[in-house]
Write a structure and sequence with these properties.
Elements: E1 3-14, H1 20-25, E2 27-37, H2 40-45, H3 54-66, H4 73-85, E3 92-98, E4 112-118
Helix pairs in contact: 3-4
Length: 124
């Protein structure tokens, strides 16, 4: 049995993108993560130490988004997944990175990349 914790709508300013103006001006990125892990120990103990501290997770994810610029959303998503899998209790993580202000010359609502990584894949 795998349980899930989700953190959705984390909005952080970053400078990712392939164009110079994206790097210079920055833009908001919105991140959704879902962690898969067994929450029975936390439910039984009722102790924060037995689960993923989603406040600390949000801070760690925000540091990646606001940190070193990269070209692709795929790279951002992979780095965020690695943050999620840093907790050995997490069996798998799904990360979606939204770029609602992507430089597209047409009307659109959102651009997003979603990836899912399992613990066995974490070192690849």
């Amino acid at each position: 049995m795998i349980d899930r914790i989700a953190l959705t709508g984390l909005r952080v300013r970053g400078h990712h993108g392939v164009f110079d103006f994206e790097r210079a001006d920055g833009q908001d990125f919105v991140v959704d993560v879902e962690l898969e892990f067994d929450t029975r120990a936390a439910a039984a103990s009722d102790q924060l130490s037995d689960t993923v501290h989603y406040g600390e997770l949000a801070e760690a994810l925000a540091a990646v988004i606001a940190g070193e610029p990269v070209n692709l959303l795929e790279t951002v998503a992979d780095r965020l997944c690695q943050v999620c899998l840093a907790d050995s209790r997490v069996a798998a993580a799904t990360v979606t990175v939204h770029k609602p202000q992507a430089p597209i010359a047409l009307s659109f609502s959102d651009v997003a990349v979603s990836i899912r990584r399992e613990r066995a894949e974490a070192g690849r």
